[in-house]
Specification:
By secondary structure, the chain is α+β, with helices and mostly antiparallel strands. It is about 30% helix and about 20% strand. The strands form 6 sheets. Strands 11-12-9-15-16 form a 5-stranded antiparallel beta sheet. Helix 3 packs across helix 11. The longest helix has 21 residues, at about 310-330. The radius of gyration is 22 Å and the shape is globular. It starts with a strand and ends with a helix. The mean pLDDT is about 95. The structure holds flavin-adenine dinucleotide (FAD). Flavin-adenine dinucleotide (FAD) binds near residues 145 and 424.
Length: about 450
């Protein structure tokens, strides 16, 4: 589903379905970078992040998901990212993916995996962890909303909420349990805890987004960005621009509807002209590792309300990434590039060096406040940080919530800082760590 922040400045994408984000995500499978684990250990007292057990758990996660590079042939869009990066001498890598046995024309003919894999070759939670859980006796309730965690005398006693009958009738449920694990994602986990009357001075704070924009390049040859592996190449030239902070560049699966959402709109006529060229368009996404986060609160009805303001420090990295994306498109042979700004700025790749430099130099002055450009997040992290300081971290290093015995958290909300890379594997590694500790 899609959600927006309070000022509508950021569109939030997440998988609101069985299996969560892993059901609809783009299958990029990355280990947590060493320097991020160092940060979590050294700055947040999650000492296990540096231990061999955590890495072994991450390895077990990758093996359960069958991650490999055999299903990462480049479609034309990823090929453009690869080619342009190589021409510029930038480091570019083939992305490992959690896909097994996808033989549809060597992975190139499909491209709908971002809507859920109908062939079952994507190794999402639905194909991996949930079958294991049911085999071990777990019962799964779909179409079910947990309203609150119930408790008695400082200990969790279960959850309450409602489910839907096949006819759509709402049925209240109450589940009793000695231990409760919440994994509703970085927006809904803190909302659920707040609705349950739980509190901690930092609960809901430090919501990270990996703020993301798309930079579209147009090519003479057909790109058809809706076909093939969604994301098979990554350019990490800017990933550590300043210490552990910077940006990286990947590609999205671009179906015409998504392109219509992402391209700037100045008039119906212009928009139609741009969309008529979508078959020749390659889009690069610039993802930024944000240092400064937002906050999740709940309104009077208990619904999540998300506030996030892009900090000038993070915005500077984002804009450097946008400039880099232009250079990659140009090096890959694009004719022109449309920038992710409401004014629909366009730059011809054969413009003179003087004109190009002046254009890119002026970019920070275009105005990059909320709603002046299309800003997305598909990576929500933080809000229930785990760590060693009881005043700063709502969750202890073993995943237990400070303040209610028997309550554990096991999702992206545990991250004390943003992952700095696509977070599915780091999140599952954290959940694996918590699960192992509960055994
Ligand atoms: C379009 C897209 C593409 C992505 N591509 C990649 C990628 O290629 N590689 C990568 O590493 N990461 C990717 N991600 C990010 C990754 O999928 C997410 O970061 C990850 O799935 C988050 O895991 P989570 O467990 O924190 O939360 P989620 O996966 O969001 O799981 C939360 C679950 O809780 C459920 N829930 C929420 N509230 C309640 C409630 N009150 N009661 C009951 N259930 C509830 C939700 O429906 C959902 O099923 C992508 C994300 C998106 C949206």
């Amino acid at each position: 589903g899609a959600l927006v922040t309070r000022d509508a400045g950021v569109t939030i994408f997440a998988g609101s379905c069985l299996g969560g984000g892993s059901t609809i995500n783009w299958t990029g499978s990355f280990r947590t970078p060493d320097y991020i684990l160092d940060e979590w250990a050294n700055d947040h007292g999650f000492l296990a992040a540096k231990g061999s057990a955590f890495r072994a758990g991450e390895g077990a996660v990758m093996s359960a998901l069958g991650t490999n590079r055999d299903h990462s042939p480049h479609n034309p869009q990823n090929d453009a990212l690869w080619r342009g990066s190589e021409v510029l001498g930038n480091p570019v890598e083939v992305i490992e993916r959690n896909v097994v046995g996808c033989q549809v024309d060597g992975c190139k003919a499909c491209g709908y995996c971002g809507l859920g894999c109908r062939r079952g070759t994507k190794q999402s939670t639905v194909r991996t962890w949930l079958p294991r859980a049911t085999a071990a006796g777990a019962r799964i309730l779909v179409n079910t909303t947990v309203q609150c965690v119930s408790s008695h005398l400082g200990a969790a006693t279960g959850v309450e909420g409602w489910t839907r009958s096949p006819e759509g009738r709402r049925i209240g449920i109450r589940i009793r349990a000695k231990r409760v694990v919440v994994a509703a994602g970085s927006v809904q986990t803190p909302a659920l805890l707040l609705r349950s009357g739980l509190n901690h001075p930092k609960l809901g704070f430090n919501l990270f987004f990996h703020p993301t924009v798309a930079v579209a390049g147009f090519y003479k040859d057909r790109i058809a960005p809706w076909y093939g592996p969604m994301m098979s190449a990554v350019n990490k030239a800017g990933i550590r621009l300043d210490g552990n902070y910077g940006y990286w560049v990947e590609t999205p699966p671009l179906h015409p509807g998504t392109a219509a959402l992402a391209l700037p709109w100045i008039s119906g006529k212009q928009h139609k002209q741009d969309l008529l060229r979508v078959g020749n368009m390659a889009s690069f996404i610039v993802l930024t590792r944000d240092k400064y986060g937002g906050r999740v609160q709940v309104d009077r009805q208990g619904n999540a309300r998300v506030a996030y303001a892009l900090h000038s420090y993070d915005r500077a990295h984002l804009l450097k990434g946008v400039q880099a994306a232009f250079q990659i498109h140009r090096a890959a042979g694009a004719s022109d590039v449309i920038f992710p700004h409401n004014s629909r700025k366009q730059l011809l790749c054969n413009a003179s060096q003087v004109d190009r430099d002046a254009f890119l130099h002026g970019m920070p002055g275009w105005g990059w406040g909320p709603n002046q450009f299309a800003l997305f997040t598909a990576h929500q992290m933080g809000t229930c940080a785990l760590g060693g300081d009881a005043a700063l971290h709502p969750v202890a290093p073993d995943g237990s919530f400070r303040g209610l015995r028997g309550l554990f958290i096991a999702d992206g909300s545990l991250m004390p800082t943003s992952a700095g890379i696509n977070p599915m594997i780091p999140i599952m590694a954290l959940a694996h760590w918590v699960g192992k500790g509960m055994e």
